[in-house]
């Protein structure tokens, strides 16, 4: 028997079909509910709303599972790299040798930015927030590549491969240029022969007289860090991409607005907050135990940053992987970071503490990512930009799903209006009483 759900309101019964996902998730399809009954459903924060059907990523928060296109995140982290996972997320399959080569080559060919974009950088104050720069620069790509940014989804999809290469490549160049500019350093051009992560490290840390060199573990850790961020279902920034794309907007403004959504401390900005928390614990001489007590009582508004997640009620699988790479990296480059010791103490204490156990609070992806970035030399102000580079494949894949959906409608939620009622009489300014 086909599954259905019944809703009874004011004595009237309405029947709706149940949609079942390939991994068994169930949803009631209430799209005609308002038309049928005059009611809408209320779900502020969308905690219980399925906004779309998607084939990209699957999360089981109870069991701590994350898969992209059916592949377990642990498998991808162990055996793949950021660019291969980006291809998988964007195109749905792992690339063959020639597909990988074509994809990489297209990204390499797009590593430079248009010369006149340099003037945009010149016009920005040195201490401008990197996320503001990144969002503006990504949006400005529509000025330089108008042929891929027509806002005619069918046309833009025909040029999708070019738009992907431009976006994936230039987000990296723009990030590195932002870092160089804010430190008063000359821009370093990308180098043709280097791979994605190595070229990023080169543009960040080389200088005209001295090429940056690094242990292989540095590139591996950065690759893993980026690929672990590649997609994460309908989070705040990805939902933003879909919202913007649903109006027919092209890829560039869609991902630029995602950067804005990512900026906030409850989303991408949490990776900075973890390091700030660990630094303040270190400065106070605490080994972490006092902070745990403060976070439990909520004293001074404290929370254990990098712990807890809206979806995961178990270990965030990405945190487990990053914790391992954190150890490997610090050992390989011979760094003894006091913050890692504090983070380990916090994790051990929290995992044994009734408060965290009862609330199912476990480390999330941000708990160890900051320690890895610090060890590589990426400054705190750039942490959320790194998240954006990593999340780009997921944003692109979600844009494509929306643009390709012929039956898709513009995203337009309803609201429950709670403002003044009845038409109010308009008073001329001179008649309005001073408050
Ligand atoms: N430290 C202390 N208590 C916490 C924490 C925490 N990190 N997280 C949740 N709680 C408590 C919360 O106070 C509540 O307690 P009570 O039931 O007594 O009122 C209970 O746990 C349940 O909270 P929740 O329903 O899980 O919270 P939420 O789903 O609204 O928030 C969260 C999820 C990630 C915003 C939250 O856990 C948090 O603020 N964590 C710290 C910030 C952080 O690490 N954010 C990164 C998220 S992962 C990256 C991303 O997705 O962008």
Report on this structure.
The chain is mainly alpha-helical and 435 residues long. It folds into 2 domains: 71-268 and 383-404, Citrate Synthase, domain 1, CATH 1.10.580; 270-376, Cytochrome P450-Terp, domain 2 (Cytochrome p450-Terp, domain 2, Orthogonal Bundle). Helices cover 51% and strands 6% of the residues. The chain has helices spanning 33-37, 73-79, 82-91, 97-109, 117-122, 130-144, 153-158, 160-182, 196-205, 216-228, 236-245, 251-262, 270-284, 289-297, 317-332, 338-352, 354-358, 366-376, 383-404; strands at residues 4-9, 12-20, 26-28, 57-60, 65-68, 71-72. β5 (65-68) and β6 form a beta hairpin. Carboxymethyl coenzyme *A is lined by residues 235, 266-268, 270, 295, 303-310, 359, 361, 364-366. Carboxymethyl coenzyme *A binds next to loops.
**Which H/E pattern describes the elements?**
EEEHEEEHHHHHHHHHHHHHHHHHH
Highest-level CATH class of the largest domain:
Mainly Alpha
Taking the alpha carbons of the first and last residues, their distance comes to 65 Å
Beta percentage is: 5-15%
* Sequence stretches where pLDDT stays below 50 over 5 or more residues: none
Mind summarizing the main beta sheet?
3 strands, antiparallel
Here the CATH topology of the largest domain equals Citrate Synthase, domain 1
Domain count, please report it.
2
Report the C-alpha radius of gyration, rounded.
Answer: 24 Å
Quickly give the CATH architecture of the largest domain. Orthogonal Bundle
Which small-molecule species are bound to the chains here? carboxymethyl coenzyme *A
Structural class: mainly alpha
Number of helices: 19
Question: What is the CATH homology-level superfamily of the largest domain?
Answer: Citrate Synthase, domain 1
SS elements, strand count:
6
Mean pLDDT: 95
| Proportion of helical residues | 40-55%
What global shape is seen?
globular
Read across the widest sheet, the strand sequence of neighbours is 1-2-3
């Amino acid at each position: 028997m086909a599954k259905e759900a019944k809703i009874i309101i004011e004595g009237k019964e309405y029947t709706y079909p149940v949609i079942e996902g390939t991994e068994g998730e169930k949803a009631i399809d209430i799209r005609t509910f308002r038309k049928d009954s005059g009611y809408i459903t209320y779900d502020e924060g969308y905690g219980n709303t399925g906004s779309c059907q998607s084939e990209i990523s699957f999360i089981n928060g109870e069991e701590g599972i994350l898969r992209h296109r059916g592949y377990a995140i642990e498998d991808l982290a162990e055996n793949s790299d950021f660019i291969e996972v980006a291809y998988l997320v964007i195109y749905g399959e792992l690339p063959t040798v020639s597909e990988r080569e074509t994809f990489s080559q297209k990204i390499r060919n797009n590593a430079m930015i248009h010369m006149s974009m340099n003037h945009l950088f010149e016009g920005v104050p040195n201490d401008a927030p990197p996320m503001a720069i990144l969002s503006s620069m990504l949006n400005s790509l529509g000025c330089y590549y108008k042929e891929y940014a027509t806002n005619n989804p069918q046309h833009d999809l025909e040029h999708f491969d070019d738009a992907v290469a431009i976006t994936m490549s230039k987000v990296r160049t723009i990030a590195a240029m932002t870092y160089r500019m804010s430190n008063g350093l000359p821009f370093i051009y990308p180098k043709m022969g280097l791979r994605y992560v190595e070229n990023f490290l080169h543009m960040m840390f080389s200088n005209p007289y001295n090429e940056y060199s690094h242990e292989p573990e540095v590139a591996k850790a950065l690759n893993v860090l980026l690929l672990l961020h590649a997609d994460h279902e309908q989070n705040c920034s990805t939902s933003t991409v879909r919202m913007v794309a649903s109006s027919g907007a092209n890829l560039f403004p869609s991902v630029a607005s995602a950067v804005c959504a990512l900026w906030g401390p409850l989303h991408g900005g949490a990776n900075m907050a973890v390091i700030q928390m660990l630094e303040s614990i270190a400065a106070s001489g605490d080994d972490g135990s006092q902070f745990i007590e403060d976070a439990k009582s909520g004293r001074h508004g404290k929370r254990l940053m990098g712990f807890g997640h809206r979806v995961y009620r178990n270990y965030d699988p990405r945190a487990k992987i990053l914790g391992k790479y954190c150890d490997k990296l610090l050992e390989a480059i011979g760094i003894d970071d006091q913050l890692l010791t504090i983070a380990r103490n916090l994790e051990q204490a929290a995992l044994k503490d009734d408060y965290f156990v009862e609330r199912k609070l476990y480390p999330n992806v941000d708990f160890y990512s900051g320690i890895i970035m610090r060890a590589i030399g990426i400054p705190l102000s750039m942490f959320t930009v790194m998240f954006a580079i990593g999340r780009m494949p997921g944003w692109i894949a979600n844009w494509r799903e929306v643009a390709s959906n012929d039956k898709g409608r513009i995203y337009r939620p309803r609201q429950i209006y709670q403002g003044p009622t009845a038409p109010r009489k308009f008073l001329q300014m001179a008649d309005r009483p001073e408050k």
